[in-house]
Design brief:
seven-stranded mixed sheet, globular, single chain, 280 residues, 30% helix, Rossmann fold, 2 domains, alpha/beta, DNA Methylase, Chain A, domain 2
Length: 280
């Protein structure tokens, strides 16, 4: 099977295919971030990186059986400015549509955030399928509601594994992840009444730009320590293998993990291909 991954990031799609037991002959990855490319090449050295999505042409590729991608979501997100399709990043969705039309793969998957229904309906119109909403909390210790547009048959929702934050906490952690006294005070202010046995909030890229005090008070309170979450803990929240991202700085690790997929959700979707592989 030949796979084309747009906006590939650190190649969560490749981890998911492996977890699902899907054999891949060629994995083409369109990505421009040097840090995520470094992580992908370290873990999957046979990945064929093909650069900027706007320069990818279907005619230059062999027959693609599966097209996947999670186009940048900042223009759609309820957490952002909701600039919809006028946002330059959200316009990259139309690159997915273009390449889908050029490659005509048998199967496709597009992931994105929850958004206003009018934007959701536009995406559905272009792709010809309605999205399925899956919350990552079924397979991980993180609340993360996402929409998945795919023509892969999904028989059911993932089984609820019952994961909570205490399941992903590292036992030994470097002092460098400790918070300042001021940051600790903020945590206490924002996380009062939050149970220590629940789910983490949605992991975002903000951990890369802060002490963690202004974006993840609930997560830090869950851990039960006066520190920020470690990169390994964030990998576990995304069901990514421990230290998968360890070849880059913590700042870059937090950023790519916040942007990434919850791997076990994607693997669940890809399992729908197992009985169809012979037809690819």
């Amino acid at each position: 099977m030949n796979v084309l991954s747009l906006f590939d990031g650190m190649s969560c799609g490749q981890i998911a295919l492996e977890k699902a037991g899907i054999k891949v002959d060629n994995y083409f990855a369109s990505e421009i971030d040097k840090h995520t490319i470094k992580v992908t090449q370290a873990n999957y050295p046979n990945t064929k990186h093909i650069g900027d999505v706007t320069q990818v042409k279907g005619a230059d590729l062999p027959k693609i059986d599966l097209l996947i991608g999670g186009s940048p979501c900042q223009g759609f997100s309820f957490a952002g400015k909701r600039l919809n399709f006028e946002d330059q990043r959200s316009k990259l969705f139309f690159e997915f549509v273009r390449i889908l039309e050029e490659c005509k793969p048998k199967y496709f998957l597009l992931e994105n955030v929850k958004m206003k229904k009018e934007f959701q309906d536009i995406i559905s119109k272009y792709l010809g399928v309605l999205p399925i909403e899956i919350n990552s909390n079924l397979v991980s210790a993180q609340n993360r509601k996402r929409l998945y547009w795919t023509n892969i048959k999904i028989a059911s929702m993932p089984d609820d594994k019952g994961c909570v934050v205490s399941d992903i906490v590292e036992k030994i952690v470097s002092d460098k992840y400790n918070l300042s006294v001021l940051a600790q005070a903020k945590i206490e202010k924002y996380s009062k009444g939050y149970k220590t046995t629940g789910k983490a909030p949605t992991l975002t890229t903000e951990l890369a730009h802060s002490t963690g005090s202004n974006i993840t008070p609930k997560l830090i309170k869950e851990i039960g320590k006066n520190r920020r979450a470690t990169p390994v803990e964030c990998e576990r929240l995304q069901t990514v293998p421990d230290n998968y991202t360890s070849m880059v700085s913590d700042t870059q690790r937090y950023k790519m993990l916040g942007n990434g997929w919850t791997v076990d959700v994607i693997a669940h979707i890809f399992k729908g291909l197992l009985n169809l592989n012979e037809n690819l």
